[in-house]
Amino acid sequence: MKPFTLIKYIFVVLFASTTPLVAQEQPVELVNPFIGSDNYGTTNPGAVRPNGMMSVSPFNVMGSDLNKYDKDKQWWSTPYSNVNSFFTGYSHVNLSGVGCPDLGSLLLMPTTGELNVDYKEYGSIYSDERAVPGYYSNILTKYNIKTEVTATDRSSIARFTFPKGEANILMNLGEGLTNESGAWMRRVSQTEIEGMKLQGTFCYNPQAVFPIYFVMRVNKQPVSTGYWKMQREMQGVEAEWDIHSGQYKLYTKYNRDIAGDDIGAYFSYDVEEGEIIEVQIGVSFVSTENAWENLETEQSGFNFDAVRKQAYEDWNKELSRVKVEGGTYD
Q1: What is the pTM of this model?
Q2: 32-319 CATH choice from 3.90.1150.10, 2.70.98.10, 2.70.98.60, 3.30.230.10
Q3: Residue 8 has pLDDT above 90, yes or no
Q4: For a Cys-Cys bond, which of 88, 98, 142, 260 suits 124, CB 3.0-4.6 Å?
C-alpha cells in the first residue's frame, strides 16, 4: 500500500471511530399532544400510558374571565383548552375525545405564600408548556413554580420545583368535570391521605354514578397539614354560631375523616430555593386498599425520572409498530 493511501485509510478509520453517531429521531418525539385540544376537539395533552387508566391533565377551564372557555358557563367536556391560560391544578383520571363531561377531578395544585384554598384566587397563569406522550410540564408564573407530571397505568407522580419561602400543596375534591358531587377523605399519616370522590351522570344519565378511590402521599414532611370545607350558607341567628357561613373553613387541628361536597386537604412547607417536592397518587374504582396496592405495585418509591423514562419507552414501543417513510413532518 502506498504511504499516501495508507495515511488516508488511517484517517478514515480514526474519523469513523471518533465521530458520534447522529441519534435517530424516535417516533414518540414526533407526537404533538396539543393537537385536538382547541376548537372543541376535546382532547388534552396530559400524561398517560398506552391504555392506562391514570391520566394527569392540566386543568384550565374554570375560575377566571381570562379563559375563553369555562366549564361552568357553557357545554364543556374536557379539562383543558389550548387557548385558555388560567391553571387551577392537575386533574386525575380524565376522558379524552368525548362530548359529555365526567371524571376530571382530584385536582392537585402547588402554591406559594400564605395558604389560600379558593381556586378562583389560588389559580395561576402559566407559561413554557411542554408535552410529549407520558409527560407534561409548565411554569406557574404567579408562583414561579415549575410543575411536571408523568404516569404509570394506575398511578401518577408530580414534581414541583419551588422558590424559597412558604409553599403549599393542595388536593381539591370539590371541583372537576363531573356533574356529581360528594367526597370523603381521611389522613393516614402526616404525609399520606386517602379518600373517595363521587363521579358520574355521563351524558344525561343521572343514575350512572360511581366512586373513584384515591391515595396520595408526599415525599417531604410538612410543617402543617389539614383540611378545608365550604360551609353551607346560614341565615339569621343560626349564622351567628358559625363565622364561616358560606365560606371556606380551615380545619387545622382536626385530623380524622372529613366529608362533604366541597372539601380538600393541604400540606404546607418552608422550602429552600429550587427545592423539589414530589407527590404520588394511586387510583382504583374498587377501594382505597386497591388504590394503595396499585401505587405500591407500580411505584415502590419516589423516582420521577424512572417513571417518565418508562412512559417514554412504552409509548415509543407502541408507536414503533408502524413505520412510515417519505413525506414531510406536516
Answers
A1: 0.90
A2: 2.70.98.10
A3: no
A4: 142
